[in-house]
Amino acid sequence: MFKVLVIAYYFPPMGLSGVQRTLKFIKYMKNYNWEPTVITAGEVGYFAHDDSLSEDLNKADIRIIRTEGGDPNSRLSKYGTIKLPREIFRKIFNKLSQTFFIPDNKISWSKKAFSKAEELLKNENFDAIFVTGPPFSAMHVFSQIKKKHNIPLIVDYRDLWYDSYFAFYPTPIHRSLHKKMEYNVLKAADRIIVTNRKIKEKIINQYPFLTFNDVVIITHGFDPEDFEKAKIIPKHNNRMILTYSGIFMVYNTPKYFLEAFKEISIEQPEIAKNIELHFVGFLRKENQRLVRKLKLQEFVFDHGYVDHKDAVSKLLSSDVLWMMVGKRKNIDAILPGKVYEYIGAMKPIIACVPDGAAKLAVQDYPASYICEPQDVNDIKKTILKVYDDFKAGNFASVDDEFLTNFRRDYLTEKLTKEFQFLVKADIQ
C-alpha cells in the first residue's frame, strides 16, 4: 500500500459537520490502496462529541496520533462538551480571535502537529501529505514541509480562506498577512482540493498563477453504509414531517421559514395542523424564543443534538427536508455538507438559498424546491406546494446513478486518484 499522512484538527470524537468529510475519506482510503495515518487534536472542549463516529475508525483499524495544543479548545478540555454560546457572543469571540491570531487560533496546535509529523518522517516514508482546513493554520504550517521533504502536498478546502464570509480583518495588515500566507500555501501545494465550484473560481481568480487543473472539485457526500444501518422511526399519524438537521449560525436563521409557517397557520390552519416542523441539532435559545413568540410550539419538535447515527435515522424518517443559507455578502461559496446527506436520504428538499454554491448543488437534484431565503411569501408558497405534492404522492424520484456521484466511497476513489497522479509524477 501507499501511505498518506493526514492532518486534521477536527476529527472524532468531535462531532458536527466539519468532522465528516475527513472521517469518511479515511474510512475508505484502504479500499484504494492508500493507508492513512492521522495527526489530530487530543482532548478538547467542544460543542459536540459523537462516539458513534469512532465506529468507522475502529473497523478500518486506522492509526491515529493525537497531539495537545495551546489552542482555546485544548485549554477547555477539562469541560468536555461545552454549551454553544449565543450567536452574539460567538461573533464577539470570533472577532477577538481573528484580531489576535493569524491565520487562526489553532496555530499552536498546528505547530505541534508539524513537530509530530517531522518525528514520523524521520522514521518512515510517506507517499503524500493531506492537510484539510479549516483550520488554515495547518495548511500554513505544513506548507513548509516541502522545504525539507520531497513529498507531494495536497490541501483540502472545506471552506474558503481569504476573503471568505467568515473572515474578519481589523486592519489592512491582517488582510495582507492572510493573503500572503494563502499565496505561499498554494505555491507549495501539489494539488488543491475544494468542495464546490465557487471556491475553485474564487481561488483561481485571486491567484492567477494557478491553472484550472491545479484545483480539483471533490464535493461533500453521504456514506451509504450510514443509511443502510439507520432505523426508520414509524409514524403515528399522517402529518407531513418537515425536518431541518444541523446548526444555525451567522449565515442562516429559521426566522423567515418560521414566519412563513406562522402565516400558513393563520390563513390555512387545516394545512398547518397536518405539518410537523422537526429540528435536529442546535436550534439555539434565540430561535426557541422565536418559536414561542410566534406561538408555534404545537408544531415544533426540537430534538437537540443527537449523534450522527440518530441524525440519519431522523432524515430517513422525515417526509421533507429543508435547508437555508442567507442572502449576504460573500455568501456564494458556502455549501453546507448536510445537503449531500439530504440527497443521500432521497427526500424532497426545500432549499431557501441565494445564488451561489448551495443553489447550484440543489438545482440538479430532481426533488428540490428552491425559494428565496428571506422572502416570507415565497417560502410560504413553497411549503404549500410541497404539501400539495405530499398529499398527492407527487414527489420526484431520485435514481441511483445520480446518487453515485456523492457516495463517500466514490469520492474517496477520486481523491486517491489525485494522490496516485502525484506519486507517479514524483517518481518520474
Short overview:
By secondary structure, this protein is an alpha/beta fold. The chain is globular. It has two domains: 2-221 and 408-427, 3-Layer(aba) Sandwich (Rossmann fold), CATH 3.40.50.2000; 224-403, Rossmann fold, CATH 3.40.50.
Number of domains: 2
Q: Helix content range of the residues, please?
A: 40-55%
- Gyration radius, in Å: 22 Å
Q: What's the story with the biggest beta sheet? A: 7 strands, parallel
* Gap from first CA to last CA: 19 Å
Low-pLDDT runs: none
Strand order of the largest sheet: 3-2-1-4-5-6-7
How much is the average pLDDT?
94
**Topology, number of strands:** 13
Could you name the CATH homologous superfamily of the largest domain?
Answer: Glycogen Phosphorylase B
CATH C-level category of the largest domain: Alpha Beta
CATH level 3 topology of the largest domain: Rossmann fold
Class by alpha and beta content = alpha/beta
Q: What form results from the Cα inertia axes?
A: globular
Measured by DSSP, the beta-strand proportion falls in 15-25%
CATH 2nd-level architecture of the largest domain: 3-Layer(aba) Sandwich
Total DSSP helices? 19
